[in-house]
Design a protein that fits this description.
The structure holds two protein chains of two kinds. By secondary structure, chain A is mainly alpha-helical. Chain A contains 20 helices and two strands. Chain A has a domain of about 55 residues. A two-stranded antiparallel sheet of chain A has the order 1-2. In chain A, a hairpin with a 4-residue loop joins β1 and β2. Chain A is globular. The chains are: A mainly alpha, B mainly alpha.
């Protein structure tokens, strides 16, 4: 590793560089009258993605879970320093698993595309590699504007993947996906410019950095009192950031893009959207919105939790009603995402950890289901559930994989879905028991829907003669599926791998929120800030005994008690 | 005496080069033109060779002008002001604008030759007219007096009216020329009336005198200022003075449309900037109000109308209007920081729009094809490089990150936030969404719709390829490294715009 560029930069830019290099090579080869074959693209692209994946593994091993330093592997380069825009990357326990999953899923998609993608394979590889660059770039961003830049790129790559390689309604689906995504990005962009300006007015420094990236630098979180101070402006700004969170996370009224995009998308794009692009909203929330506007976040939390719980039920009902396999999976995905939001906005340790765990489980189970659906589609050319039945007989291996993914998706113990779901419900029961109960109903609905789908596809006699001659999975398909199944089972059996890395950032997040809420209360004694302090000082289940967050909370609570007349 | 003469010549040197060069182009064209008469067997000069000779000559002229202006910029960026008689200044702003306008003119010139021959409308006058128009623009961007402004506007526009009607056999081209000239003359009259009223109210036409007299100028002078701004508003196609732009840009030959859309607009904005900042009072409340309303209208009308266009030249015209709206954000109110953002926006818009029109030039064929959205179906497979380039330019016009347009919009939006123009800021954010949708229709058609059988596979001429590559490089470099690289100082667009804004 050179001194200028660190491991994260290599991870971000090698896929893009490989894609551009291949494009240049193809153009040169064409000038020389030679056509660079698509297999070469896949091979070299795979090598590039593998490089990133190995680096992410290396980073995972080198990451110190209990370190006091907030961000590790930090790199900082000035980009447009006059405006406070820097190339500023680093990881913590939130982004580490997301980056690891993204690199892993890209490898899987590249393997699977040999069987899936029949048309314009070279462009496809380019598209996937740019999407990987954009996604990793997002997850590593510690500069708000840089994050937005990468986010917009990710949206474009994914939308083109849907629009070019998707099914019949692909163009409309791609535009819907891109349009709604861009509304979110524009909202967060407007919010970013406003908070930048408020920070400039208040502290005289132009910055988009989250924390100070260099000596003498300044970050949005460096000052204790949230910029703009007044609770009202925080509420508006959180609205903008919240929109950017709600759209990718498919929160109930903003979920309308999900089934169309995922239903029409090619399998590879579905996998990367479910396992990568959707996380961007949650990431924006955890990294930027919650620490920046804690009072507003708490103030908005109940309505958001209500939408989330309602979304779980609604998604479950819709999943029951689907006749198309991919759309059914999309609504199951919406349920799981609803649980994520429910857990995060409970704001206690169990809820936050559970939300992120649930999200990571979603990134494994839903892509697995999409991969399996894609394998059926490439054999039969259709995804209508009625066309299938009794697949167990011609395709036993496939059916086992399908059964395990369905069980993981509905949260059966020992598989990845369980721990997250359990923690989310635990956290939500603490703050809003009724909503947790509603969500529980939704979980039941989606479990019924998925099991029902499994039964109709896999079990029973082979009614449709076309299904009799189906060939079971080939070695490439088994390899791709195994790569998702290892984390799926591992998370279920040994969740400490993740929780040990998530614990510290969750505590840090709660501490930062609490500190800033208290400072807001000091500066502007607003009843909303007081309510937020009460919410955040509640001892939730799962909080460690010697946690910094709890001490801070206790300290603030006693201060608060002293201040009261 | 001698020394001041030398300074005078330095200050107007780019203008002199282009003006004299234009006259030279007329002479050269008449020398080269094949004479009618009995065919005596001597080798006839083909239009292609005449065109090549004239474009080489004009390229040399424009390059000389660019080099002179860039040289003076490099030397004198610390010298704030350089006044000469006649009332012309060569400051950093003028040098920046001279380089930009001449570069765009050069681009339009290089796009012309092959296009005009392809459409069988190649005429030798084109080059001289183009150079004359550039000369008018160079006079305008360094104007320090209202009379100079008027002269410059006429010098810029008269050749353009003729150029718009170059394709005489086509009804839309003649219509475009007629519309352009009628409305242009009307705008000139408005502007002239404004100048007269201002002179009547203050007894001055020089910017400096006007500026000192402006605070107590009274109603007549204010009306005059409004009329002058309206006249300039026509030239930059700000809403509500925009109606000519889509028609003219659709009808005119494509390189001319590019030139009108970019160079004339850039010049107009620079003059408006000089007038508002140098002769009027930029913080005047009424003026800020007017500019706010005009910017809002320009943003929303341009973006919304762009959505429904099927002809790509019209689409680019409306996209240009919307982009002008973003430039106008810097006028509410005008300050040194906003001038730098404005100059960056002009450069970003210029290269993106020139590149987009360049793609249309390549796609054009004799039967007026290559202009409709449908002509681009499946271009991503037929000509991947052209499709990628077109997407890049359109993304830049829509302000997608990674392109020059994004950095430009970021800067002007920050100006709007800084001056606490909340409503304007939100309108701009919304307009950008609409604009994105409007421009995105083209990549959608190029990549997502299936390829048509028998569709044309246009070839790219070397001059056109050069222009397109240069524009793409500019869009990417200004977008990804707007601040240069850390180990090369003083060579980035942001620094140039700052220096130009500071040395005005």
């Amino acid at each position: 590793m050179g001194e200028l560029v660190g491991v994260i930069s290599w991870m971000i830019f090698v896929p893009l560089g490989v894609g551009l290099g291949l494009a240049a090579l193809t153009a040169l080869a064409r000038l020389a009258g030679y056509d660079l074959p698509a297999v070469a693209w896949i091979a070299v692209g795979f090598a590039g993605a593998l490089f990133s994946a190995v680096l992410s593994l290396w980073m995972w091993l080198g990451f110190e879970p209990a370190a006091v330093v907030e961000y590790q592997f930090v790199e900082f380069l000035p980009w447009i320093p006059e405006l406070g825009i820097h190339y500023f990357v680093g990881v913590d326990g939130f982004s580490l698993p997301m980056i690891g999953l993204t690199t892993c899923l890209v490898l899987i998609v590249l393997i699977a595309s040999l069987d899936e993608v029949r048309d314009r394979l070279r462009t496809w590889v380019f598209c996937v590699l740019t999407l990987e660059t954009a996604l990793i770039g997002c997850f590593a961003s510690l500069n708000l504007l840089q994050f937005i830049v990468f986010w917009q790129w990710a949206l474009f790559s994914a939308a083109f993947a849907i629009g070019i390689w998707g099914r019949a309604g692909r163009v409309q689906a791609a535009l819907k996906f891109l349009g709604m995504g861009t509304v979110g990005v524009t909202a967060i962009g407007i919010g970013a410019l406003v908070i930048h300006q408020l920070h400039l007015e208040q502290f005289g420094v132009a910055t988009f950095d989250l924390v100070a990236g260099s000596i003498g630098g300044s970050g949005l979180l460096d000052t204790l009192v949230p910029v703009g101070g007044g609770v009202r402006s925080q509420l508006f700004l959180f609205g903008a950031f919240g929109l950017a969170f709600a759209i990718p996370s498919a929160l109930a009224p903003f979920h309308i893009w999900l089934a169309d995009a995922q239903g029409e998308a090619p399998t590879g794009a579905s996998v990367l959207i479910a396992g990568g692009a959707i996380n961007l909203g949650v990431y924006a929330l955890l990294r930027f919105a919650l620490p920046l506007f804690p009072v507003a976040a708490v103030e908005w939390s109940l309505p958001i939790m209500a939408l989330a719980a309602g979304g779980v039920v609604y998604g479950g009902l819709l999943a029951l009603a689907q006749t198309d396999l991919k759309r059914g999976i999309a609504y199951a995905s919406m349920c799981q995402l609803g649980l994520v939001s429910l857990g995060l906005f409970a704001f206690n340790v169990a809820g936050l950890e559970g939300g992120v765990l649930q999200l990571i489980s979603h990134c494994v189970t839903i892509p697995a289901l999409f991969l399996l659906a894609g394998m059926l589609e490439s054999r039969r050319g259709t995804l209508a559930i009625d066309e299938f039945g009794g697949i167990t007989k011609p395709m036993p291996v496939f059916s086992v994989f399908l059964a395990v993914s369905v069980l993981a998706a509905i949260g059966v113990p020992m598989l990845s879905g369980f721990v997250g779901q359990f923690l989310v419900l635990l956290g939500a029961f603490e703050t809003a028991p009724w909503l947790a109960a509603v969500a529980l109903v939704g979980i039941g609905l989606v479990a019924v829907a998925l099991l029902f789908v499994f039964g109709r596809v896999a079990l029973g006699p082979v009614k449709n003669p076309e299904n009799r001659g189906l060939i079971d999975l080939g070695w490439r398909e088994r390899l791709a599926l195994l790569a998702v199944f290892v984390p799926m089972v591992w998370i279920g059996l040994h969740p400490e791998t993740l929780t040990s890395r998530l614990h510290q950032p969750v505590l840090t997040l709660r501490r930062v929120m609490l500190d800033r809420v208290a400072a807001t209360f000091d500066a502007y004694p607003d009843p909303r800030a007081e309510r937020a302090i009460e919410r955040l000082t509640d001892r939730g289940p799962g909080e460690g005994s010697a946690s910094g967050g709890r001490e801070a909370a206790a300290g603030v609570a006693s201060e608060l008690a002293e201040r009261r007349p | 005496m001698n020394e001041s003469m030398a300074v005078n010549l330095d200050a107007v040197m780019p203008l002199l080069i282009v003006g004299v060069g234009a006259v030279g182009a007329v002479l050269l064209e008449s020398l080269l033109r094949p004479r009618p008469g009995p065919d005596d067997g001597s080798p006839r000069r083909s239009p292609a060779r005449i065109g090549a000779a004239l474009s080489l000559y004009s390229t040399a002229v424009l390059l000389a002008a660019i080099a002179t202006a860039a040289g003076s910029f490099a030397e004198d960026s610390s010298v704030p002001f350089q006044a000469v008689q006649p009332p012309v200044v060569l400051d950093g702003l003028a040098a920046f604008a001279t380089v930009l306008v001449s570069t765009v003119g050069l681009g339009a010139l290089l796009l012309s030759s092959r296009y005009l021959q392809k459409l069988r409308i190649h005429r030798g006058e084109t080059y001289a007219l183009l150079l004359l128009s550039v000369a008018g623009m160079l006079l305008l961007v360094s104007a320090a007096d209202l009379v100079t402004v008027f002269l410059g506007v006429e010098g810029m526009c008269l050749p353009l009216y003729a150029l718009a009607g170059l394709d005489r056999h086509r009804r839309t081209s003649s219509e475009s020329a007629l519309k352009f000239q009628l409305l242009g003359t009307f705008a000139s009259a408005l502007g002239l009336f404004g100048i007269a009223l201002l002179y009547g109210a203050t007894g001055a036409t020089g910017f400096a005198e006007l500026h000192s007299a402006f605070p107590e100028v009274g109603a007549i002078g204010r009306v005059g200022a409004g009329l002058l701004c309206a006249g300039l508003g026509f030239r930059i196609a700000a809403v509500p003075f925009h109606a000519w732009a889509p028609d003219v840009e659709e009808g005119a030959p494509t390189p001319v449309a590019a030139f009108v859309s970019v160079a004339m607009r850039t010049t107009g904005v620079i003059v408006l900037l000089r007038v508002v900042l140098g002769a009027f009072d930029p913080t005047d409340l009424a003026m800020v109000d007017v500019f706010r309303v005009v910017a809002m209208l320009t943003l929303s009308v341009g973006a919304v109308m762009a959505v429904v266009q099927e002809n790509l030249k019209r689409l680019l015209a409306y996209v240009g209007i919307a982009n002008l709206g973003f430039v106008l954000l810097a006028f509410v109110p005008l300050s040194e920081g906003s001038v730098a953002a404005l100059l960056f926006s002009l450069a970003a818009f210029g290269f993106s729009n020139l590149g987009a029109f360049g793609i249309l030039v390549v796609m054009a064929d004799r039967n007026r094809g290559g202009e409709r959205l449908g002509d681009f179906t499946g271009l991503g497979q037929r000509r991947p490089a052209l499709a990628a380039g077109f997407s890049l330019f359109l993304f830049s016009l829509a302000g997608i990150p990674g392109t020059a347009g994004f950095v430009a919009k970021l800067q002007v939006m920050l100006v709007a936030v800084r001056s606490e123009e909340t409503a304007l800021f939100l309108v701009a954010g919304f307009a950008n969404l609409v604009l994105l949708y409007a421009t995105l229709r083209v990549p959608v058609v190029m990549y997502m719709n299936p390829e048509e059988r028998g569709a044309s596979r246009p070839t790219v001429g070397s001059a056109e390829g050069l222009v397109l590559l240069a524009c793409a490089a500019a869009v990417l470099i200004f977008g990804l490294l707007p601040n240069g690289v850390s180990f090369v100082d003083g060579s980035s667009l942001i620094e140039w715009t700052r220096a130009a804004a500071a040395s005005r």
